[in-house]
Amino acid sequence: MTYCVAIKVDAGVVFCSDSRTNAGVDQVSTYSKMYHFGIQGDRQLVITSAGNLATTQSVIAKIRKDIKDGADISLATLDSIHEAADYVGEVSVAIQEKHANNNSNVSFEASFLLGGQIGLETPAVMLIYPQGNHITTSDQTPYLQIGESKYGKPILDRILKPETGLDTASLCALVSMDSTMKSNLTVGPPIELMTYATNSGQMEHTSFSADNEYLRELTKSWDRLIVEAFLQLPAPPQN
Question: Is residue 19 part of a domain?
Fold first, then answer.
């Protein structure tokens, strides 16, 4: 299983993804699910992926090839995040159909989070479904998730607003990931975090291994503070 979250606030965008791939209890591997595509001074884009690993790797390979070959349509040429999402969706659908023709008994579906900034366009985040269509964030829901999304959702709903700072948004993403790992052992480190401040032209990338001191302290602190907060709640009324 996989968990990826992307956050869009006024200050910029945040991406967080795990790196665990589970093909059964005796086949657990790690693969990065976060990919950076940037042209200095022009665009900075991030893609995270969930779903069939053959599909996601083929999609990323095709995207990279189009850029390398100087294709007319690629992440290096498109003028908006919406156009980029359409392009990634079309590549994904074509690859899914190709794989399905060879094996109709396996699901080759994959979904992607895409975001960043192109030119002076307002930064944006898109969720691209297996069918190729996509949605974006809103002021009411300034985040998108793929993979094992339910466990990490509460902190995002309670804290995130458009005016939330980038550091707070990054912390929300990491706590959301920690909550997911706590409840689903198929999601696990290394954890990757990518942040982009609006109009900065620079992506910041951090990777947290399983024995990372900050990640361990975050888990311990979050566990302790949740218990402390729970113990301070008012008791249920007595009949």
Answer: yes
Number of domains in the chain: 1
pTM, whole model, 2 decimals? 0.92
Residues 6+ apart with CB under 8 A from 231: none
Domain region containing 194: 3-231
Between CA 117 and CA 130 the distance in angstroms is 23
Closest CA to 121 of 84, 91, 148: 84
In a domain, 130, yes or no: yes
pLDDT tens digits, 22-58: 544 455 567 889 999 999 999 999 999 999 999 999 9
| E strands, the chain, in order | 3-9, 12-17, 20-22, 28-30, 34-39, 43-51, 110-118, 124-128, 134-136, 143-147, 191-197, 203-208
Alpha-carbon span 35 to 13, nearest angstrom = 15
